[in-house]
Design goal:
By secondary structure, the protein is an alpha/beta fold. It has a domain at about 90-160. About 40% of the residues lie in helices and about 25% in strands. The protein has ten helices and ten strands. It has helices spanning about 45-50, 75-80, 100-110, 115-130, 145-155, 175-190, 205-210, 230-235, 240-245, 250-254; strands at about 5-15, 20-30, 35-40, 60-65, 65-70, 85, 165, 195-200, 210-215, 225-230. The protein has a six-stranded mixed sheet. It has a four-stranded antiparallel sheet with strand order 2-1-4-5, covered by helices on one side. Strand 1 and strand 2 (about 20-30) form a beta hairpin. Helix 3 packs across helix 4, helix 3 (about 100-110) packs parallel to helix 5 (about 145-155) and helix 6 (about 175-190) runs parallel beside helix 7 (about 205-210). The radius of gyration is 18 Å and the shape is globular. The structure holds adenosine-5'-triphosphate (ATP). Adenosine-5'-triphosphate binds next to strand 2 and helix 1. Adenosine-5'-triphosphate binds near residues 38, 41, 44 and 45. One of its GO terms (molecular function) is ATP hydrolysis activity. It holds the Pfam family ABC_tran. InterPro entries: AAA+_ATPase, ABC_transporter-like_ATP-bd, ABC_transporter-like_CS, P-loop_NTPase. This is Phospholipid/cholesterol/gamma-HCH transport system ATP-binding protein.
């Protein structure tokens, strides 16, 4: 079996006729944390939109479990997307609903056979999994920024995704909450065996969680490094090493 859960082949990512990144080639293995990095505006979020099926490739293919995502019709694409969990920057929770109700929402849409009580029970389990046991009845406004991210994550986990996508999850978090979120990411990888795709600028996070790193270059508009963090630190292109080694003394303390 193909070890890659998600594979990208000769992908050009962009909008209309505007190519943001081209000739991207990489594979995301089951159970790994795959970090996408690069300077501001290089196209990290754009790539993510292509990976989660929000944006069709300008060229090339995105394969999920060996299946060409965009060669499918809309129904099949939607059914593949059920295996994707996405954590949006602000958690993307409905403010007028409790956390349990927020998490039960995708369950009601995709598992209508579940009773109300079963949905509530599953929501409670997901909240416990992200370190928010007993918070079922709280509203999003009652949460701190870090708790809101965890609640958003619980919702992203509602349908037991095989792959989780995070776009700048530490934005707006203090260093301790950021570290706690990284630890949770590693726990999810290890306990659920989920693959995790993380877009981040945060060096301490990259050092804590990355298995494989992809570096998108702003100038050439394509990938210039792909591999384990250690390999990029030891033998990556100079600009990638500079990126990874900025603030190194602080990192060693992290
Ligand atoms: N909907 C859109 N239509 C056209 N161009 C867009 C659209 N969204 C983003 N872009 C452009 O795509 C380029 C890459 O943006 P993107 O947000 O993907 O970069 P990024 O690496 O995630 O940036 P940052 O690190 O600052 O968040 C930018 O030039 C941006 O203006």
């Amino acid at each position: 079996m193909d070890e890659a859960l998600l594979r990208v082949e000769n992908l050009s990512a962009g909008y209309g006729r505007k190519v943001i990144q081209h000739d991207l080639n990489f594979a995301i293995r089951r159970g790994e944390v795959f970090v996408v990095m690069g300077g501001s505006g290089c196209g990290k979020s754009t790539l993510l939109r292509h990976l989660i099926g929000l944006q069709a490739p300008l060229a090339g293919r995105v394969l999920f479990r060996g299946e060409d995502f965009w060669a499918n019709d809309e129904d099949r694409r939607a059914s593949l997307q059920r295996h994707f969990g996405v954590l949006y920057q602000n958690g993307a929770l409905w403010s007028g609903m409790t956390l349990a109700e927020n998490i039960a929402l995708p369950l009601a849409a995709y598992h209508p056979q579940l009773s109300r009580a079963e949905r509530a029970e599953l929501a409670a389990l997901k909240l416990a999994l992200v370190g928010l046991p007993g918070c079922d009845g709280l509203y999003p406004a009652e949460l701190s920024g870090g708790m809101r991210k965890r609640a958003g994550l619980a919702r992203a986990l509602a349908l037991d995704p095989e792959i989780l996508f995070f776009d700048e999850p530490s934005a707006g978090l203090d260093p301790l909450s950021c570290q706690a979120l990284d630890e949770l990411i590693l726990e999810l990888r290890d306990s659920l065996g989920a693959s995790i795709v993380l877009v981040t600028h945060e060096l301490p996070s990259i050092y804590r969680v990355a298995d494989t790193c992809l570096f998108l270059d702003n100038r050439t508009r394509t990938q210039i490094a792909l591999g384990p963090l250690r390999q990029l630190l030891d033998a990556g292109p100079p600009e990638v090493q500079r990126f990874l080694r900025r603030g190194e003394p602080a990192l060693q303390r992290a």
